Amino acid sequence: MLWRRLLVLLLLALSGTGVAAAVPGAVVIGLDGPIGPASAAYVVRALHAAAERGAAAAVLRIDTPGGLDSAMREIVRAILASPVPVLAFVAPSGARAASAGTFILYAAPVAAMAPGTNVGAAAPVSLFAPTALPGPEDKRPAQRDAEMAKIANDAAAYIRGLATLRGRNAEWAERAVREAASLPYDAALAQHVIDLVANDVPDLLDKADGREVSVLGRTVTLHTRGLPVLRVAPDWRDRLLALLTDPSIVYLLLLVGLAGLAFEFSHPGAYAPGVIGAIALLLGGYGLNLLPVDYAGAALALLGLALMAAEAFVPSFGAFVIGGAAAFVIGSLLMFETPGLRLPWPVIAAATGFSAALFGAVLRLLLRARRRPVASGGRVLIGRVGRTIDWAGHAGNVLVEGERWRASAAQPLLPGQAVRVVGRHGLTLRVEAAPGGEA
């Protein structure tokens, strides 16, 4: 067996891709963390690559708290359309297939879990209604909400259809959606939620060998024992998309963008803050467009920023800063409510402190600096007193504020005489004799 693995590694190094073309094997796809547009694109691409390379099986290793419904459905569609049998495997020990991960596990022809893992809590979360979903006979007020009823019924029908397709426990699947039920690995096997329990990927391939599964409507017998394992890693596009759809990154990009533009508007001519702010704002807006956002929370966060910025224009002895910071924190907490995509407290705390410092103090100092009298240039010379260096008739050279200037006067002056600046034309000063000969 060792020589086969070495051959696979050699072909992998020579081809520069994640899947060897000449040797069929088991492709391992890691689905870790929240499920979003980036993870969906990665799984879809990896399944397509596995089919093109003639892989014998694809192992989708799952460890997720859940994620976006749209991304989950994209992964499910890719699994159902894949000509390569997909083995969904909740692993390693301590992993979970919660929320959207439960749907993906049910969609795979083979569902497996490692010891110490759990599955369930698949109740969909609405950004505009309570998260508790009513059961079929529940008469609570939440059931009367048409939007939540649609969400609950749609999700329940979806997972029940997947369970029926794969011959698994449909009753528990609906409970996972309506009641957020969860099961550990052993109970999931006993209740026929999954097909088998395995310790790791090689153990899974050995136990799945000989099973008959349905792939694209036809029955396929798995021959997976001893297959070489080929791991497909996310490429640079997947990593970039993952960054741009990470709520924390999107949140910080928007904050940096607003701060950069605010700095540029309050201090024109700096250019760099404006350019950086515009780019950050556009990137953050792109990520925000791909994520589910509670717009009430986003509006509250913007109101908080506006209140903190108002402190720079209307000093309120800190009232605007304190009220704005409170609104900003509450809005930030409400902005992303999807499981696995919520903003962590340290990010919110750091962003609030940064915003309060920038809008409450820095911008105020900048505006004060702009309102000060001009301390340089031609206008500051008017009224200054200097002394002539040399003079002939109505023109000569004078020393004003330590600088030598060409000067003219309506009356003849003497060398060394004290003069006062009364005007300027280009690089020539207009002067007159200073009263009392003062210098």
Give a quick rundown of the structure.
The chain is 48% helix and 18% strand. By secondary structure, the protein is an alpha/beta fold.
Tell me about this structure.
There is one protein chain. With 439 residues, this protein is of the alpha/beta class. The chain has 3 domains: 178 residues, 2-enoyl-CoA Hydratase, Chain A, domain 1 (Alpha-Beta Complex), CATH 3.90.226; 126 residues, no CATH class; 59 residues, OB fold (Dihydrolipoamide Acetyltransferase, E2P) (Beta Barrel), CATH 2.40.50. It has 15 helices and 16 strands. It has a 6-stranded parallel β-sheet, with helices on both faces. A 5-stranded mixed barrel has the order 12-13-14-16-15. It has a 3-stranded mixed β-sheet with strand order 4-6-7. The chain is elongated. The N terminus is likely disordered.
